[in-house]
Amino acid sequence: MKKIATKIEDNEEKPLEKNSVVLLMGSIVGTLLLLMPIFLPKNFQLRWNFHLPQSPPPRVKPLRPVKQQLISRLGRENTIGTRKPDLRIPQMPTEVSRTTNNSLDKLIGKDTPKLGHIPPPIPLEFRNSTLKISPSHRNLLNQRSILDVFKIMRFIITILTVSNFLSLVFSPKSPIFLSLARSSAELWWPLHDTGIVFFSETTMPSSASVSVSVSASASSTTTTTSGAHSDLLTRLTSSESEVQLKALRELKNRIIGNRTKKLSFIKLGLVPPVAAILATKAQAQVQAQSQAQARHDSNLLVQSAAALGSFACGFDAGVRAVLDASVFPNLFLLLSHPDDKVVDAGARSLRMIYQSKLAPKCDFLQEKNMEFLLSLLNSENENVTGLGASIIIHSCESTAEQKALCHAGVVKKLISLLEGSLSQRDNSLESLATVMKNNVEAVSEFVGSESGRALSSVIGLTKDRYPRTRLLASMCLIAIRNTSACYLQDIGIKTKLVHLLLELHDDPGQVGDEAPFAFSSLISEKPDLQKLAFEANAIDKLYNHLQKSQLHPKRFLGILLALADLCSKLESCRSRFLSLQALNLVSDALTHDSSDVRTAACMCLRCVSRSIKNLCAGNFLNEMIVPPLVRLLDDPSTSVQVAAISVLGNIAVDFTMRRSLFVQCGGVKQLVQLSKSMDSTVRLNALWALRNLMFLADNVCKEGIFMEFTASSLASVICDPEPFVQEQALALIRNLVDGCIKSVELVFTEDGMILDAVRRQLQNASTDEIWIQGMYVLSNVASGTEFHKEAVMHQLIPQEDNGTQSFILKFLQSNESQLRTAAVWAIVNLTFPSSPGSFSRLVKLHSAGIVSQIKSMVNDPCPDVKVAILYLKFVISFQLWLTTAWCNTMLSFFFLQSAVWKLSILWVLLTRFVNMPYTAAIFYFQMYKVTSISWHVVALMALWELCDEVSGKDALMLL
Amino acid sequence: MSLFWIVVHQLAEIEAMAASKKVITREEWEKKLKDVKIKKEDMNKLVMNFLVTEGYVDAAEKFRKESGTEPDIDLATITDRMAVKKAVQCGNVEDAIEKVNDLNPEILDTNPQLFFHLQQQRLIELIRNGKVEEALEFAQEELAPRGEENQSFLEELERTVALLAFEDVSNCPVGELLDISQRLKTASEVNAAILTSQSHEKDPKLPSLLKMLIWAQNQLDEKAAYPRINDLSTAMLEDPTV
Predict the structure, then answer these.
(1) Do A824 and A854 form a contact (C-beta atoms < 8 A)?
(2) At residue A83, what are phi and psi to the nearest 5 degrees?
(3) Whole-angstrom distance, CA of residue A715 vs CA of residue A733
(4) ipTM confidence
(5) Domain-located, residue B62
(6) How many helices and strands, by DSSP H and E, does chain B display?
(7) Does residue B130 belong to the interface with chain A, where contact is any CB pair within 8 Å?
(8) CA A859 → CA A862, A863, A867, B101, distances in Å?
(9) Does B178 score more than 70 pLDDT?
(10) How many other CB atoms are there within 10 angstroms of residue A579's CB atom?
């Protein structure tokens, strides 16, 4: 019994205890509240107004999934944020998605937020379009949601103190907030594709470095032998043709195979007299005299043509000299000469010239030229058909030309030449590859001809005894494969090609030099083939070749490009590459004599540095790589500059914050200089690199870059004539203003000219990409202080009402989902409830028709937009509802308690609601309705004070 | 029980059969050989191919007349090719180079290695004839620039010039360069290059057929004992040793 009694006693005592606890809590809360304004720094209070009922629900609930995804992508601990910049989803540009960089995707991925994970948002509906708040407004709300909200309310009120303390923990300065909302750092995608295509062309002029060394040695030899040479010159111009013939023969035998002699003879001016002999004899051939004379003449023709051909063989200076002597039409005359030897010599010389890029193009679209070409291909003479093939290889570039050749039956003719002699077969394979490259029509004609026999014969030629034929056959197959995805897809032929080309790398001669280029064209952009190549130990094999000393520049170039292609997509290749220490060899190549090799080394580094794992480990930002790269920024060749900038851009996305090394090397200064370059590609890449450097950078780094750049030149690059430069400039600003308030303030220097420039671009530019970046700039700025928000507001909705629609409305209606997302987030940041002016901004947005636009976007197909819209709807409704609902709660609390309580609550209202006049006004209004006369006076006085802050129009609407 | 023993015995027999090679007697083998039909023309073509590739012009001409087999290459070009080959073999390299250039100027222009080897041979001949001054000048003017272009050429050039340093060249470490075999090596290289430029196989088919025969016999040795050809010059079938 006693036990029961005690139990009853306990039960009876409990309420008493509760009361005392409540009282105790109350006094603690009261004192804390009183002291709170003293504890908190003033500016902090202004910016981070923690009105408890307001902040947690909208901040945490609907947005958390997005944030959590971002956080999990970044692999950091989750903390709840207070500032809005972290809510924006970093954008993944299309270029990067092409790189299919898995790790990158994971990091800043393009996967859409999963709607299924979103906790059901409280379905408040924004029905009251005039924003009028009435008690009946609550009735419109879904009952369940009201209950939910009330639960939250009660919870919030009891943890008032805790929350205030938490506000310190959830300081906006905590690094996670800085890391979340930024324009994505895009790892490079080759805009420099053209470079790769250029290098993989089959005809490759002798590299510049070689000719330089040749000229150096040539000058030394000319001095010793010029005596004999000038003698040659007089003999060549002699009137006696016997003397001429002997001189020609001597000249020819001296220059064949001897580059040095060719160069020195060209300098001595021996080409024009030879060309003159050819011209006179070629044009005089019609009136042939006696047989002996005719034989003598044709001998002269053969010798002069051979000499000219040899001058043109293998190096561009010779081709230029020969072309300058205008021998071209005369050599063509030789092709119709009755003597076979003359025809041979003419065709050979022309072929030599056509192997150079300098040779004039033949326009196949002219019927006359096409007929001539067909006559060449139909010739019995092997050299002449070879010439025809060379002309095709040299001149056929556009699709129109390829089609014209197809229609003229060239493909059929070339297929029949596959059966011919060795050289005809090789020529035919090469021409076929040229005609079929990127031309679906030609490929289907080839594959379909003779029910696939042509194709199978080419496949058969990949097993040929001669390495050159094997190489050309595989190049032909690669052209077919790359053009039409439907042919040659089985794994057998793919593996065969990969193994064949890797094996051809071992050839010591020309074939080995060209094999890496063919290999590159096989694997570039094709992860499946890259995987096969990786499995065939391609990285190791290429690395072994790279290790050889005295590598021919062309082969060096090809191997570097092949490595670049291998590492462009697959992380496994990159890690194998790095584990072999191949980075040392490639960074040595950065100082190679040949500019092409330097460019290729940069491309290789760029592809390897796409590896997020190694970027995170800071494997690239070291003394071995960065200083030579920064030196390359001064390179005389623009292509090297661009390639070096692009590597730096990738490396700049360094997560270990080791950017100081880069700054020490003077890299920033150089990049800023280059971003003002005359060349738009250089500008673009420099800005891109700076943008990536800005990504996740600390404030010191950002300020450093900003000071180097200056606001005025930033404003001028935003208004660059090239749209793609504008886009990068805006993205740079976007990364600049992301993060802490200090960096946002940077754009307000010099009267906010940067922001004005952004607005101009948003109004005048015409591409989605620029708009997206520009909108994100505004969105990021809007995440700043009240002043920043107002500035953005000012840009969004012009003060003077000249009838023009605000551009943000246009963006909200855009078809581009990314643009819609950016625009919606800007509005989210502007109306974020914790800031005092958000309600008035909401009203302005409403009158600009933006709120109604947002309401109509509830069913947006893009999940990113939908999440933001749902949130925004919630905020808009909640902000209106909150003011009434929360006031009522407070009021009910107000009546239950003693005068001390009333005073403390009033104190809270007076101190904390200073920045929220609307909420305060509603509260006082409600108070006025219910309480006694003495309180009426207080409420009226408070309302009167508020009238200063609430404009007449808004107050009216409120009431 | 007896049944079990029978089975075991049979198994042992089968095993023994598998271990010992199958024996083909001479009669069986010859009967099989007779069944293989080879066209006379094909045999003739094989012979002609050998004559043409190796450059026996007169023999080829006679063989053409006798057997009516048409060579797959113009016999006149063989004459030119042989003239070049002969010139190199006689040490008259300058003449050989001129002849090659008359034949097809592309050969030496597009084949730097061959061109270097010919020039090297020319230097060797100059050294052989004791024309030291001339040799040095030639090496400087013609060969040094090639060495600059290619590292391996430079090494070979150094080896060649080393000949000048020795009194008794025949016994020096690089003496083999002066050997007649070096001439033959260069000559066959030129021969192969000319053949390739004429879209012709650079090796005759007959030697590769013989190589194939030896390979096939080695493969067959593992499986059977048969009348084997051991002496390729006589092509006699030798009875299998059992």
Answers:
(1) yes
(2) -95, 155
(3) 10
(4) 0.76
(5) no
(6) 13, 4
(7) no
(8) 9, 9, 10, 80
(9) yes
(10) 10
- CA A7 – CA A115 distance, rounded (Å): 51
The verdict on residue B91 lying in a domain is yes
Q: Which helix (H) or strand (E) holds B229?
A: strand B228-229
Beta-bridge partners for B23: B225
Give domain status of residue B231, yes or no.
yes
For residue B20, pLDDT over 80 is answered with no
Is pLDDT of A958 > 70?
no
| B18 lies in the same domain as B86 | no
Is B106 in contact with A352 (Cβ distance < 8 A)?
A: yes
Instruction: Compute the distance between CA of residue A398 and CA of residue A404 in angstroms, rounded to an integer.
Output: 10
Quick: pLDDT tens for A865-893: 877 777 777 777 666 655 555 656 666 66
Instruction: Tell whether the model's pLDDT for residue A562 goes beyond 50.
Output: yes
* Dist CA A686 CA A673 (whole Å): 9
Q: In whole angstroms, how far apart are CA A384 and each of A290, A323, A544? A: 28, 20, 41
Bridge partners (DSSP) listed for residue B22 = B224
Residue B110 forms contact with A (CB below 8 Å): yes
Residues of A in contact with B145 (CB under 8 A): 214, 217, 221, 258-260
Q: Which helix H or strand E contains A168, and what residues bound it?
A: helix A160-169
Q: Are residues B21 and B105 in the same domain?
A: no
- Each domain of chain A, given as residue ranges in start order, spans 2-39
A-chain residues near B106 (CB < 8 A):
309, 313, 348, 352
- Note whether B226 contacts A: Cβ–Cβ < 8 A: no
Residue A804 has pLDDT above 70, yes or no: no
Cβ within 8 Å of residue B26, ≥6 positions away? B227, B237, B239, B240
Q: Are residues B89 and B165 in the same domain?
A: yes
State how far the Cα of A621 lies from the Cα of A652, in Å rounded to an integer.
Answer: 8
Which residues face B228 on adjacent strands? B238
Structure tokens at A419: 């059966």
Per-residue pLDDT tens over the stretch B78-132: 888 889 999 999 989 999 999 999 888 889 988 888 999 999 999 999 988 888 8
Residue B134 sits in the same domain as residue B232? no
Tell me whether residues A221 and B110 touch, CB distance under 8 A: no
Count of residues making up chain B: 242
Q: Count how many Cα atoms sit within 13 Å of the Cα of residue B19 in the half-sphere of its side chain.
A: 6
Shared-domain flag, residues B193 and B215: no
> Which residues does A283 contact at the CB level (< 8 Å), separation at least 6?
A330, A333
* Contact status, residue A328 vs residue A308, Cβ threshold 8 Å: no
Nearest-neighbour CA in chain A from B125: distance (Å)? 19
Residue A662, both tokens: 């880069």
Q: Which residues in chain B are closer than 8 Å to A206, comparing Cβ atoms? A: none
Contact (CB, 8 A) for A351 and A312: no
Q: CB-CB: which of B105, B111, B115 is closest to A348?
A: B105
Tokens 């070629």 locate to A282
Query: Helices B180-197 and B112-128 sit at what angle, rounded to 10 degrees?
Result: 150
Asked if A310 lies within 8 A of B142 by C-beta distance, the reply is no
Tell whether B89 and B164 lie within a shared domain.
Answer: yes
Measured CA to CA, the distance from residue A560 to residue A549 in angstroms comes to 15
Round the average pLDDT of chain A to a whole number and report it: 71
Domain that holds residue B225: 2-37+211-238
Residue of B nearest to A550 (CA): B151
**Total domains present in chain B:** 2
The verdict on a CB contact (< 8 Å) between A314 and B110 is yes
Smallest CA-to-CA distance from A201 within A554, A569, A639, A551 is with A554
User: Does B76 contact chain A (CB < 8 Å)?
Assistant: no
Tell whether B205 is covered by a domain: no
Has residue A504 got a pLDDT over 90? Answer: yes
Contact B108 A256 (CB under 8 A): yes
